[in-house]
Design a protein that fits this description.
The chain has 134 residues and is of the alpha/beta class. It is 15% helix and 37% strand.
Length: 134
Amino acid sequence: MTHFDSVVPQFTVRDVVATAEYYRDVLGFTIAGYWNGEAVTFESDPPPVFGIVKRDEVRVHFSRAEGSPGGTGRAEDAYDCYFHITGVDAFAIGVKSRGAEILEGPADRVYGQREIVIRDPNGLILAFGESTSK
């Protein structure tokens, strides 16, 4: 029997460090590490080409856009990533106080989710939703 355990979004961004620091400072993630093919440990190392942030069981990966603007190919009004969370109202208060660009919410949706929608510094649209059916 096949079972899927998780999915890890990987976004292409212009600046891996600035992006990871935003996810840490504004969204409450922890920086798991940076790499240039091997772990980056010194400030004098070249800028990382890859980074990982984590929060609870969620991981997000970032790759540096080499010769590409990064970003997304999403349709208008679509999300780049949807996070299922618990405590969306408390999360919204926290990210708002830390300067997140909130596009919508928190708001109840007809599909049984209470959501907040945020734009990150790369223009990625992130939705954070909690089930309203309990």
